[in-house]
Design brief:
- The protein is built from three helices and six strands.
- It is of the alpha+beta class.
- The chain has one domain: Alpha-Beta Plaits, CATH 3.30.70.2330.
- Strands 1-4-3-2-5-6 form a six-stranded antiparallel barrel.
- β3 and β4 form a beta hairpin.
- The longest helix has 13 residues.
- The mean pLDDT is 88.
């Protein structure tokens, strides 16, 4: 995983999906799925891992890449990993994504 900001994209809303998040391995592949009908955030990008929703790309990141994710010809995937205990303690973030391998027009 990259040590840059692109390698540490937080997934939020994990509390709502905590049962699924707890079943995820230490590292996994995630699919990014735009949710234009999301009633809470019109630029919502769901994070799907191991067949279930694990949360959402943080809003400040999602707003900048939503259109590219929505309009992508094929599903966008990226590596994900469980956050370190220190990440969880300071921010509540359970998992992080690595966007460094996404096409340049999608990288936040």
């Amino acid at each position: 995983m990259a040590s840059t900001v692109l390698g540490r994209i937080p997934v939020v809303g994990g509390v709502a999906y905590i049962e699924h998040v707890r079943t995820l391995p230490a590292s996994f592949n995630a699919v990014l799925s735009a949710e234009p009908e999301n009633r809470y955030f019109r630029h919502a990008i769901a994070v799907i891992a191991n067949g279930g929703k694990a949360g959402y790309v943080a809003p400040e990141v999602a707003a900048g890449i939503f259109e590219q994710v929505r309009d992508s010809a094929s599903p966008l995937t990226c590596p994900g990993r469980r956050a370190a205990e220190s990440d969880h303690e300071t921010s509540g973030v359970e998992i992080l994504l690595d966007f460094s391998g996404l096409p340049p027009n999608v990288q936040a």
